[in-house]
Every structure is written in C-alpha cells, then in structure tokens.
Amino acid sequence: MNAHYTSGDIVQGIYSGLENLGFNGGTILEPSMGVGGFFSNMLDEMKNYNQ
User: Fold this and answer.
1) CA dist 11 to 7, 35, 51, Å?
2) Is residue 1 part of a domain?
3) Contact 19, 44 (CB under 8 A)
4) What gap in Å lies between CA 10 and CA 34, rounded to an integer?
5) Which of 23, 27, 32, 43 could make an SS bond with 18 (beta carbons 3.0 to 4.6 A apart)?
6) How many beta carbons lie within 10 A of that of residue 26, not counting itself?
7) Is 42 a member of any domain?
8) pLDDT tens by residue, the chain, 51 residues
9) Domain annotation covers residue 41
10) What pLDDT sits at residue 27?
11) How many whole angstroms separate alpha carbon 19 and alpha carbon 23?
C-alpha cells in the first residue's frame, strides 16, 4: 500500500540536475531507501567523492 518506486530515468535526471548545479558529491540522505534506485544509480563521481 505504501511502496514507492522512482524510475531510473527520473533518478538519473535528478543526479544530472545536481551535477549541473555544481554538486560533485557529499552527504546525501535517502531516509526511505525503497528499492534503492537512488543509491544504485548514483554517479561514479559522486560515489568516489572524498571530502
């Protein structure tokens, strides 16, 4: 009843938008992991970001 899914195209669009705004990596909170679409589709540059 309360399962939510965000398609991979939408996730990639959000990450592309963040990158266009200058976000290269850092802390990202996804409190309701769901199927893990945001985690599994994170751009490699953001995954490998070292602060």
Assistant:
1) 6, 12, 23
2) no
3) no
4) 15
5) 23
6) 9
7) yes
8) 666 778 889 889 988 998 899 988 887 777 776 777 887 888 887 877 765
9) yes
10) 78
11) 5
* Total number of domains in the chain: 1
Task: At 1, list the tokens.
Answer: 């009843």
Q: Where are the alpha helices (DSSP H) in 3-43?
A: 8-20, 37-40
In single-letter form, the type of residue at position 24 comes to N
**pTM for this structure?**
0.69
Q: How far apart are CA 15 and CA 36, in angstroms?
A: 14
d(CA 11, CA 6): 7
- Would you give the DSSP letter of residue 18? H
**Is residue 3 one of the residues assigned to a domain?**
no
Place of tokens 């540059």: 45
> Rounded to whole angstroms, how far apart are CA atoms 39 and 8?
11
